[in-house]
Design a protein that fits this description.
- There is one protein chain.
- By secondary structure, the protein is α/β, with parallel strands linked by helices.
- α4 crosses α7.
- It has an eight-stranded mixed β-sheet, with helices on both faces.
- The protein has helices at residues 8-17, 35-49, 68-74, 106-119, 137-149, 166-180, 196-203, 211-215, 217-227, 251-268, 270-273, 300-313, 315-319, 324-334, 345-361, 366-371, 374-388, 393-409, 411-417; strands spanning 22-28, 55-61, 92-98, 123-126, 153-159, 182-183, 192-195, 232-239, 280-281, 284-285.
- It is 49% helix and 12% strand.
- The protein folds into two domains: 8-285, Alpha-Beta Complex (Spore Coat Polysaccharide Biosynthesis Protein SpsA, Chain A), CATH 3.90.550.10; 300-417, no CATH class.
- It has 19 helices and ten strands.
Length: 429
């Protein structure tokens, strides 16, 4: 039986509101500068697009020290209806409460899932509290597919710079696509829509006391929804810009946490993914449009130096992870001059599969294994950037599509070395 995380006071507040159709969750941590405008946008979206549905906005705060909770409580939304022609049939209610346990966002999500269940809500949407580009329409794009089209999980689709989000483009998206047969382009976004039945499924899973809840809850949710055959789609939200904060997590940590979680989930769902052949697109709702986005700073010289040093200094470690042909290929690339530096798709995909296999076999400490992937990742980013810097955004997306096809073509390499736990036939997605 799942642990009860709602206090009696919260239950009383929800009971007083009566049956609710929509819950909007806003997790926060030191977001005093932006939470007001995020709450205003969420409130405006509910009034404009769901005036005839009863809703509650929930801010779950993780112990902010900058006045975030106070800013949320002081946000005056009562007079915002003047911005709209039609007034709502039901008011939009607001609750602010703390969440406890690990400081990760997963604890806030768990709270939202439980509130949606307690309130018997039909749909839940979650948006980050540090957004600077959220619009009221985001609420429609995240909730409408659940309420009117029967989807269980709505993943975000953002407009990003062609070289932004390299961890997603080069590892996470291709892996999820090849493993589970669905093309969800941005599977680790902070915004999503979800049905009540999937929220209940998430809430009762044994994940909330683990590192997944702290570091990789988004990829866990996306993977679970796809692997367990819930109805999944994507909604185009346009540009996404966060408030700038100091971060205590470097890229190596992020790479280890996110990709390590993908590898861990491969173990949980190996009976699913080893029987998947090919992939199908997840429906994309909304209307993509051209817009300017901020360029991404790239330091090719530093990336190349990191790659070459890693291949040289970590060779004994790589020998325990990477198959000999791939390791020789990495060494050959390291010897190339800057102007000719290039990692082939086949080599990169085989290396990622080797790391997934090494993670599964526990050839060395898993955290250390994921950390030593970082120099090789920088080499791939440098190679990809050299090829893509003069291409259009559409051409770069086509380049990523080709990489994904190589992941699919080389999947037998992964399957043949993964311990077999069943003899099922391959099935098309």
């Amino acid at each position: 039986m799942a642990e009860e995380i709602l206090t009696d006071r919260v239950k009383e507040d929800l009971s007083a509101l009566g049956e609710i159709e929509i819950v909007v969750g806003i997790p926060s941590y030191n977001d005093a500068r932006t939470i007001g405008q995020v709450m205003q946008a969420a409130h405006a979206g509910l009034l404009k697009y769901f005036a005839n549905r009863k809703a509650v906005i929930v801010n779950s705060d993780g112990g902010s020290k900058d006045g975030t909770v106070e800013a949320a409580k002081q946000t005056n939304l009562d007079n915002r209806s003047i911005l709209f022609v039609d007034h709502p049939l039901y008011p939009v209610h607001h609750l602010t409460m703390p969440y406890h346990g690990l400081p990760g966002r997963g604890n806030a999500y768990r709270m939202f899932f439980r509130i949606a269940e307690e309130a018997k809500a039909s749909a839940l949407a979650v948006v980050d509290a540090d957004l600077r580009t959220i619009t009221p329409q985001w609420l429609d794009l995240l909730l409408r597919p659940v309420l009117d089209k029967g989807y269980d999980y709505v993943a975000p689709y953002y407009k990003r710079h062609k070289l932004d989000g390299a961890i997603t483009s080069s590892i996470v998206y291709p892996l999820l696509r090849v493993l589970y047969g669905r093309r969800v382009r941005q599977p680790i976004g902070g915004e999503f829509g979800i049905s009540n039945r999937l929220a209940s499924r998430f809430r009762t899973r044994d994940v909330w006391g683990t590192d997944v809840a702290q570091y990789a809850i988004d990829i866990w949710m996306t993977t679970t929804a796809i692997a367990e055959n819930y109805k999944v789609c994507q909604s185009y939200l346009g540009e996404k810009t966060h408030d700038t904060k100091d971060s205590g997590s470097d890229l190596g940590s992020m790479l280890a946490q996110v990709v390590g979680s993908v590898f861990s989930l491969m173990e949980a769902y190996d009976a699913v993914w080893r029987n998947v052949l090919g992939s199908l697109p997840a429906p994309l709702l909304g209307s993509p449009f051209e817009m300017g986005v901020e360029p991404v700073p790239i330091n090719l010289e530093r990336m190349l130096a990191s790659y070459r040093q890693g291949v040289r200094d970590l060779q004994p470690v790589y020998q325990s992870i990477i198959a000999t042909p791939q390791l020789k290929g990495l060494e050959a690339v390291a010897a190339l001059p800057d102007g000719a530096f290039a990692l082939s798709d086949d080599l990169w995909v085989a290396v990622i599969y080797d790391f997934a296999l090494g993670y599964h076999r526990r050839v060395l400490d898993r955290e250390h294994l994921m950390r030593v992937l970082t120099p090789l990742y920088w080499g791939w980013v440098a190679s990809f950037t050299r090829q893509a810097q003069d291409q259009s955004a559409a051409q770069v997306e086509g380049r990523i599509e080709k990489l994904c096809l190589v992941f699919e073509q080389l999947k037998p390499y992964l399957i043949n070395q993964w311990p077999l736990r069943g003899g099922k036939e391959e099935s098309k997605p």
